[in-house]
Amino acid sequence: MRAAQPRRRLRQALLNCALLAATMLLLAGFLEVALRLIFARSLDFSMEMWKYAVSLKQPVPDPRLSFVHRPNSTAFLMGVQFSINSMGLRDREFPREKPPGVYRIVWLGDSTTLGWGVPLSGTAPKILERELNAAGHGRFEVLNAGVGNYNTVQEVEHYLTIDRSFHPDLVILEYFINDTEPVPRERTAGLLGRSYLAAFALSRFDGALRVAGLRPRWREYYASLYRDGSPGLEAAKDALGRLAAVTAQDGTGLLLAILPELHQINGAYPFEKEQRKIEDYLASRQIRTIDLLSCLRGHGPETNLWITPADAHPNVKANMLIAGCVSTAFLSRVDKKLTKSHTGGRRGNERGAFNVDGFDEALRYRRVATPDLVPRPWRRGRRYQQLRQ
């Protein structure tokens, strides 16, 4: 009789553990379903960026790339539709060979170029494409080659392995303050990696650590990336040097557009010292550079340029200003005589379809510091006047 009591207690304990486990599984399942419904269409940065990684990214063996967009994939993220074409670009389909008479531009960058939280038509590459075609100097294509979470090393590698095959006449690389981060490692998401509950718990835990001061604040973190001898900084310089060498070898123009961190651009910019290190290197390699800071200042509070009050990615207004800055630098500094060859008798896949050497010569400046670099046709439009207010 007494010997049976321990067995009954053991069975009861096992039953209790099973009931507890079943209850926990049911609760986890309920929370998983609830979170999937809540975040199906949200503006929560952490959850949407996680959904982006799960839905649109795929790992690759190349350690300099780590991941690329999954071809022919779609997802609704940060309030807009993202559609990736067969070549892994957030853009329409383009033939590898340029059509005759077309001047082709590839715009490299991270999520700021990709258009995080912005419709494709509202991204800087697509706005630039429309502006150049409306200027009447010929036919232009601007390919959006931005990939979220990329750094400069990955952007250059993406160009060398994918975008170079489009035979562009000009490459624009949009540089951001965090482009000196190390290349992240992307792994195929397993069952837990696709769980909304796990992603939500991890994002909130990370947020709690930041509030508690156990994670570096954004200013401290960005500044730390530019310490002398930083591996990420040296890797970024090396990648920019490789891009300059390859584009020069191909006869392709190269333009660096430096995008400021949008938290504080009115007044003293907190990363002037860090940005100067990149600018000095670009100058030493004679790489043409546009500083977009002057184009984005003076348009009201910085939050006017953010996609949400909690996410400082450039919104449509900011993308219009960025595209306007690049468009003005392009159109105003190229002699109209050079554009005549654009519609001349040369084939579109030849470098002479638009005089790249002439454009490169026209861009012999280090920084653009014009107070308002928005093309004149925009200044007359009602939409531009609204954005200025």
Spans of at least 5 consecutive residues whose pLDDT stays below 50 are 335-389
Beginning-to-end CA distance, first to last residue? 88 Å
Contiguous helical run count = 15
* Portion in helices: 40-55%
The biggest sheet amounts to: 5 strands, parallel
Structural class from helices and strands? alpha/beta
Rg, Cα atoms, Å: 25 Å
CATH homology-level superfamily of the largest domain: SGNH hydrolase
User: What's the count of strands?
Assistant: 11
Mean pLDDT: 85
The CATH topology assignment of the largest domain is Rossmann fold
Tell me the fraction of residues in β-strands, as a range. 5-15%
Provide the spatial order of strands within the biggest beta sheet. Answer: 6-5-7-8-9
**Could you say what the CATH architecture of the largest domain is?**
3-Layer(aba) Sandwich
Please characterize this protein's 3D structure:
It is built from 15 helices and eleven strands. It has two domains: 1-38; 41-388, Rossmann fold. It has helices at 4-38, 45-56, 111-114, 124-134, 152-161, 196-211, 218-224, 231-250, 272-284, 293-296, 316-332, 336-339, 356-362, 376-380, 382-388, and strands spanning 57-59, 67-69, 74-77, 80-83, 102-109, 139-146, 170-175, 253-258, 288-291, 306-308, 311-314. The chain is elongated. Strands 6-5-7-8-9 form a five-stranded parallel β-sheet, sandwiched between helices. A hairpin with a 7-residue loop joins strand 1 and strand 2. Helix 4 crosses helix 11 and helix 5 packs parallel to helix 8. With 389 residues, it is α/β, with parallel strands linked by helices.
